[in-house]
Specification:
There is one protein chain. This protein is about 95% helix and about 0% strand. It is mostly helical. Helix 1 runs antiparallel to helix 3.
Length: about 55
């Protein structure tokens, strides 16, 4: 029983972590889209911003 509870808690934490990663990635992509014209003028900043998301 304890093993099943621990397993369920671990799965819940993994799912929450996955949702958090997806949310952060979405926010990062939204930021990049909002700054795309500025970043296009300076490709190095675009590369650095994309690396920061990874």
């Amino acid at each position: 029983m304890e093993g099943a509870i621990a397993s369920a808690l671990a799965a819940s934490r993994r799912e929450q972590s996955e949702r958090d990663r997806h949310r952060a990635l979405g926010m990062g992509l939204k930021f990049l889209r909002s700054k795309s014209s500025q970043l296009a003028q300076n490709p190095r900043r675009l590369i650095d911003a994309a690396r920061a998301l990874i």
